Amino acid sequence: MIISIHQPDFLPWLGFFNKARLSDLLVIGDHVQYRNKGYQNRNKIKTTKGAQWLTIPIVHNWGQAIKDVGINETEQNGVSWDELHLRTLQVNYGKAPFYDKYIGIFEKIYRRRIKLLADNNLEFLKAIFEILGINVPIKKTSEMTLSKAKTELIVEICKTVGADAYISGMGGSQYMEESLFEQNGLKLLFNNYEHPVYNQQFMNSGFLPNMSIIDLIFNHGPESLEITKSGFKGFELNSIRAK
Q1: Which phi and psi (to 5°) does residue 170 adopt?
Q2: Are 194 and 233 in contact (CB under 8 A)?
Q3: Helical (H) or strand (E) element with 184
Q4: pTM for the structure as a whole
Q5: How large is the angle between the packed helices 213-220 and 14-21, nearest 10 degrees?
Q6: pLDDT digits over 34-83, tens only?
Q7: Contacts by 150-158, CB closer than 8 A, 24 or more apart
Q8: Please, where are the H alpha helices in 112-223?
Q9: 208-209-215-220 Cα dihedral, nearest 10 degrees
Q10: Which residues pair with 167 in a beta bridge?
């Protein structure tokens, strides 16, 4: 079984969904400590002025696990955070070819006003998996009994779920102890991903990579999965599963 592990990011970029589609199981690392300035409560969209953060306001305590981080419901100038997001999406993607087809899916999740950040993000992930046609089961680390940290934690998760291969982002080579995978009989794979170029809104300002997946979905709709796949330059999946 091939797995990938990722924290519950908000509306992630294309590379995340490529890693998920290659996996037999996606493990959501929600038991680890929340850290500011990551992607758990924000991601980028394209606007007339370039990239802009779409941010969920949060309330949390120092050292709190991601699974326990709450969403701040305080309104700004009489506008709730979810309404602000929806207005921002309408302004910047309202004329995109597939905005009308998909915005209702996201609006339903926004309107639910889910209290916890991780729960909210997982609902968006599941909706996007359905749009893309990615059928991968999800398991949360908060549902497991784990005690390790860093690379040992990854190995522990692999053993807990019965995996024999792990897909890492390319940045993992900079901090993981790769020898631990071989020592534990695990195959280490890398999500070697080159961001594809596609038609965006406001192309007169040039293409912006690393936007949220919704940028691709609103612009290309049913073609989004194939465009996402086109950036993958890594391993041959069938040969890995045959071993």
Answers
A1: -60, -30
A2: yes
A3: none
A4: 0.94
A5: 90
A6: 999 999 999 999 999 999 999 999 999 989 999 999 999 999 889 999 99
A7: 150/175, 150/176, 150/177, 151/175, 151/176, 151/177, 151/180, 152/180, 154/5, 155/180, 155/181, 155/184, 155/186, 157/3, 157/5, 157/27, 157/29, 158/3, 158/184, 158/186
A8: 117-132, 150-161, 179-183, 213-220
A9: 100
A10: 4, 189
Task: Find tokens 């006003």 and name the residue.
Answer: 113
Tokens of 227: 């465009």
Length of the chain: 243
Q: Which residue has the tokens 């465009």?
A: 227
As to burial, measured by CB atoms within 10 angstroms (0-12 exposed, 13-18 middle, 19+ buried), residue 108 is exposed
The string of pLDDT tens digits covering residues 104-162 is 999 999 999 999 999 999 999 999 999 999 999 999 999 999 999 999 999 999 999 99
* Structure token pair of residue 12: 């992630």
Backbone angles phi, psi at 24, to 5 degrees: -85, -20
d(CA 238, CA 174): 27
* Helices and strands of the chain, counted as H and E runs: 9, 9
pLDDT at 77: 87
Tokens 């996007």 sit on residue: 128
> Letter for the amino acid at 65?
A
Contact 216, 227 (CB under 8 A): yes
| Confidence bin at 215 (pLDDT 50/70/90) | very high
> Locate tokens 């905005």: which residue?
99
